[in-house]
Amino acid sequence: MKYVFIDKNTWGYFDDELKLIGNFDSELGNIYVAKVKKYEKSLDAFFIEYEKNKIGFLNNTKYTENVKASDEILVQMVKESIGDKYPKFSTKISISTENLKYSNDDKLIFEGKQKYKDIEDFKSKYKFTGIVEDDFFKQSKESQSREVEFIMSKLQYIEREKKFLPIPKLLYRQNPVDKIIKRENPDYLITNDKTIYRQYKDIINVKFEENYDYNYDDLISSDIIDKSSNTIKLDNDSEIVIEKTEAMWVVDVNSKHMKKSDDFFEVNKMALKKIHQMIYLKKMVGMIIVDCIRDENKDKLSKFIESEFVEDNINFQGFSNLNLLEFTVRLDNL
């Protein structure tokens, strides 16, 4: 079973274990129906209220030449506030997926070398403006359709909801969950937010539970505890201890009652699986040093690491002179 959850300001993805968790800590890219507060002639710009008591800055362009105070207007945040400066907004709206970038500027651009037939089929099938990347046509017809419909459902939601009170309000949030839904095709989304329910109900099976709290979700509660702990208990009286220094992450693998080399490998394998999960949950970026149980069969452990641990953003650098495992982790997807 695979599912995603959105609990207030926290999102996560479960697939046999908690794979990813994060917070919505940025407003960049968010789309709002805002209310124009006033026009500042000296700046040739508008001050807008984009959420209750939140003020932003909107430059006057050819798209806003008929806008006046008290008007309601659809905007997207293009620059977050810095210090005492207001965040900046634009009336140019964009929503992106892996291979598509919708824009409301009425232009359709096909990037890369694409077949004429593919382009004509796309134009005849979809009313879409924006950028279509080369890789879009390398996926199945079903995946192509799902990707376009994902954006279209968002636009339909925005168009529908912008008419209803309260105004101003948030209509669309740049959401890592979108990419997970597209890539992993989870069984359902669970949320305690009615706005999220309305936004996603035409895209995925959504379960609305008003009292949902991910901390008490039986399937992930132990993973949530591990995420906040330095010492994580494993089976067979084993544990890993994770410490963050200024220069690196250090992980120590400990165990009791081991009698033969096969036990060493199994404990190390179990520990590495948990470390792999914690890389994503704890955002363990940079150098990671792992002190596994000493095992003379390095080749067996190396093969496991290469097949089950290494990913595009997780690299195995080998064994150090002290027989410590060395990994480097980039920020990609964390």
How would you characterize the overall build of this protein?
The protein has 334 residues and is an alpha+beta fold. The chain has three domains: 1-24 and 176-220, Nucleotidyltransferase, domain 5 (2-Layer Sandwich); 25-174, OB fold (Dihydrolipoamide Acetyltransferase, E2P) (Beta Barrel); 229-329. The chain is 26% helix and 33% strand. The protein is built from seven helices and 21 strands. The strands form four sheets. The chain has a six-stranded mixed beta sheet with strand order 16-17-18-19-21-20, with helices on one face. Strands 3-2-1-14-15 form a five-stranded mixed beta sheet. Strands 4-5-6-8-7 form a five-stranded mixed β-barrel. α6 (261-281) packs parallel to α7. The longest helix is centred in the middle third of the chain and has 21 residues, at 141-161. It is elongated. The model has no long low-confidence stretch (mean pLDDT 91).
